[in-house]
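2024-03-11 09:14:02 DEBUG pipeline.ingest accepted 1 chain
2024-03-11 09:14:02 DEBUG pipeline.ingest length=396
2024-03-11 09:14:03 DEBUG pipeline.predict start
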Amino acid sequence: MVARGQTGRRGFVLVATAMASVTIMGMLGLSLDLARMTIAKNELQSYADAASIASASRLNGTSAGIDSATTEATTNINKWYFGIQAVSAVTVDFATASTGPWVTAPISGDGYRFSRVQTQGVVPIYFTALFGVGPTRTVNAAAVAGQQALSELGDGAFPFSPDAHVPNPLPDDPSGNFGYTKGELYTLRWDPVGKGSKVGIKNSSGNKVVGCSGDMNTPGFIPGADNNGQRGYIDLGGSGASFIRDAILGAIDVDPIEVGDMIDNANGNKQSAVSAIMDRIAQDTNTVTPTYYTAPAAGVGLEPPGRTYYDIDPPGDPAVPPQGNGRRLVTAPINNPTTDQVVGFANFFLPLDPCNTAAPGGNPQPCCAEYVSAATELPGQGGSPGGAAFAIRLFQ
């Protein structure tokens, strides 16, 4: 009786072991299939994230930007499925908000700042197929990236604060361009009357100053400088000539400045700033193109007739002048000339000789920059100016 009992127990253990082995092998197989699907999903998601960010960086408010964004997401294909398959079945669409609605081919790129990339891949499965789920499973990935406006500007801020033309003299500018005209020149540094020119306009303190065409030719515009000693420089952590020079060149950290902050004017002529601006222009790979736009816009908020060939993309068409690296594109806080508060940030393009250093006699001159756009926009196809008040980030 004892022998028969031991034999029965051995038989039960054998059966239980066999059943457990089948269960363990099934769970192991299921785990392997799920692990492979998870890895494939993560690889596709990494592609979608990178592709949407790259695509969003190409959006510049034009149809050409839409085309470039689509090409960027679909042409620079990564490998997936353990690096052995090219990503396929990619769709790219665009929206004016991170939540959509999404459009595959917008008629115009105006306002489209968000890019969504969707893709999928087929993963073969082995063990779970035994349970009747089929020989393959489809994994999907999607990502949304876009341009997010920033409320503050730190490293990269240009140490000048041009005066907005809203609400002075215009009651409002619904275009968001501070009352500026794209392609027109606005004043970075003012020149007091009597040093090179007898024609000026009065600032808020009643002193005459000389500025650039966009300011001088706007009827009723009143600059906000308190006195002739305040020329347009602002204190972003230092007001000395050497600090201003380093800030112009982006060679020093500056204090962040936010919308709503009061600007801190820095007094003095600071002629070394002129040479610093010229040095920054010389650091660009395009010192040929004279202007960013071919001509000023027809009016406030309207688009200029067209862009010049200044571009910070790699060279493409050999017939155009050499593309730049973005050093001639700068971002500055814009202030309300009545209150001295920062109302936003703007992108400017530095002309070849912004401060008219070729003027006879070496007298101080106003320093001018061409208005490109509000800094929440990308100013040129394929890139952004250093320190622009926007960020490309993932939203989904």
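2024-03-11 09:14:41 DEBUG pipeline.report Residues 377-388 have pLDDT under 50 and may be disordered.
2024-03-11 09:14:41 DEBUG pipeline.predict end
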